Amino acid sequence: MSNAEDSVKPPELSGNESAPGGSLATNDPKNVQELTNYIQSMLQQMQDRFQTMSDQIISRIDDMGTRIDDLEHNINDLMVQTGGTAPGTNPEASGQNNGDK
């Protein structure tokens, strides 16, 4: 059964191989203070990237909202120009019923 266990184990890295998600092992922190600073730096970078992406998403959503508002306005204008009623209006309630007057 040792063959199955050996195939499941991940390979061990030597001192100069690259770790799966990062830098060379020679650049890794050497003590607790360096590790703390390294982690804080990485977390700050992640926070900055997240904030940038979040700001971009919000900006794009705002742009889409403006475009939708403009599109609704243009559709309403076209409906008025063609003699139709704008969406969301009730011709019977406003007295604009074409066939009954």
From TrEMBL:
Keywords for this protein: Nucleus
Pfam families: HSBP1
Leader peptide range in chain numbering: none
Single annotated GO MF: transcription corepressor activity
Region Disordered: start-end pairs: 1-32, 80-101
GO terms under biological process: cellular heat acclimation
Compositional bias annotation for Polar residues: 82-101
Subcellular location: Nucleus
Any one annotated GO CC term: nucleus
Superkingdom, taxonomy of origin: Eukaryota
Main location: nucleus
Family designation: Belongs to the HSBP1 family.
Function comment: Negative regulator of the heat shock response. Negatively affects HSF1 DNA-binding activity. May have a role in the suppression of the activation of the stress response during the aging process.
Alphabetized PANTHER family for the sequence: HEAT SHOCK FACTOR BINDING PROTEIN 1
Subunit and partners: Homohexamer. Associates with heptad repeats of HSF1 trimers and probably also HSF1 monomers, and with HSP70. Association with HSF1 trimers and HSP70 coincides with attenuation of heat shock response and the conversion of HSF1 trimer to monomer.
The protein, known as: Heat shock factor-binding protein 1
Organism placement in taxonomy: Eukaryota, Metazoa, Ecdysozoa, Arthropoda, Crustacea
